Structure formats: structure tokens, C-alpha cells
Amino acid sequence: MATELSVRVIVPALMMELKDNCGSEGSRETESGVMGSLGGPSSWGSFTQRSTLHGLRFVFPHAASSRRSALRRLLWSAALLACLVLLVLESAERVAYFLQYPQVTSVDAVVSGSLVFPAITVCNLNAYRFTRLTRNDLYHAGELLALLDVHLQIPEPHLTEPHVLSFLTEKANFSNFRPKPFSMREFTERVGHDLKEMMLYCRYQGQECSHRDFKTELTNVTVVRGAV
Asked: What is the pTM of this model?
């Protein structure tokens, strides 16, 4: 019974002692925190000593270690400043590179024994053949083709090549001319380029191909596409 009573008495005593110790330490920490928040001389020193920024505690040493030479502090300051400048430059370069929106294209070459005839598109930058124009074509589409002005006259004839000027002078003579109905689709099919005349040679996988392997599609420009 004596042992049991002693345990009951000692344990609360120990708890009270631990509580007092914790309270005193907490009060001391609180007081130091309050002093630091009040801007006391220990606030900046504590920050520099506990900061994870490498070198900062050597630039601003603790009061106890303030005997370090000024040359060492100067060297640490230069090193820290140089690292910060490099960080800013590298970050700015990466941001500028990101704003360029770079794209990477990866091309792989695969060997194949046979391929399907590709769907290619052949476009002529000169949409219409000049020599196929008629007087009725010039009357209706001369301004659209920039060959005649709004008054059906040749614009700036002194800048036109002689053979073109001769052709336009003959075809653009609308005296006693009676215009006929005009169809843009018929005009495109008749005056547009013919693949049979455009294609000089075609060979695919050892076999010759011709204009018959293509079909014509009418869009804003006349194009021909592989049909096989």
C-alpha cells in the first residue's frame, strides 16, 4: 500500500514539473517571438541564421561570430549576388523561350514493300490559260482577271508586254459586239489548265501513270487529285 500511494503522489508531481517546464519554455519562446516581431535587434539576425538561402548567414553573421573578417563577408556577398543575377538571367531566358511557343516535329522513316497510290494535289498558280480567252470571256470576266478595267479598257497599256497587248487589243474590241450568256463553271472547265498538258511524266512503284489516274475537282481554284 505504501508503494502504491507513493506512485500516486510522485506521478502528479512529475506532471506538474513537466508542465511548469513546458510553460516556462513556451513563455520564453513567446517573449523571443514578441521581441522579434517588435523589430528588435535579434529579428534580422535570427532570420539570417535560420534562412535556407545559402550564404546569407555568412554575409550577416551572428553577433557572437561578428569577428569574422570583412573580406570574407565581402566575398560571400559577391558570390550571393552573382548567383542571384544568374538566377534572374536564366529565368528570363526560359520565359522568353516559352513565349516563343517552340514546336518539335518528329519524323520516322518506315520501310514498306508496297504503298497505296498517294492522294496528291496539283495546283497551277496561273489559274487560267491566257490563250484560251475569248471576247465574251473578256467582256464578262476581264475585270475579274485584272486584264481590263471597269470601262472595259486595257489598264496601263504602256506597261503591258507587246504580244499580250496585241492579243488584248484584238479581243477587247467590243464595237458591234453582242455578249452571250456566261457561266463561270463552263469558263473554268474550258479555260482552266488541263492535266494532260501539264503532266510531263509520271511513274509510281515502277509503273507508269498518266492523267487518267487523276480527277479534277472545282473549288476556288482548279485542282487535280490522285484518284487511285
From this structure: 0.40
Cβ density class 113-130: b for 16+ within 10 Å, e for less: eeeeeeeeebeeeeebee
For residue 155, what is its C-alpha cell?
A: 489598264
Domain ranges in the chain? 48-101, 121-226
Domain 121-226 has CATH 3.30.565.10: no
Per-residue pLDDT tens for 57-73?
A: 788 876 555 555 788 88
Query: Is there a contact between 182 and 141 (Cβ–Cβ < 8 Å)?
Result: yes
User: 202 with 213: CB under 8 angstroms?
Assistant: yes
Residues 188-197, buried b or exposed e (16+ Cβ, 10 A)?
beebbbebee
Q: Nearest CA to 223 among 129, 121, 130, 119?
A: 121
Rounded CA Rg of the chain? 46
Q: What share of the chain is helix, strand, coil (3-state, %, to 5)?
A: 55, 10, 40
State the Cα–Cα distance between residues 145 and 138, nearest whole angstrom: 8
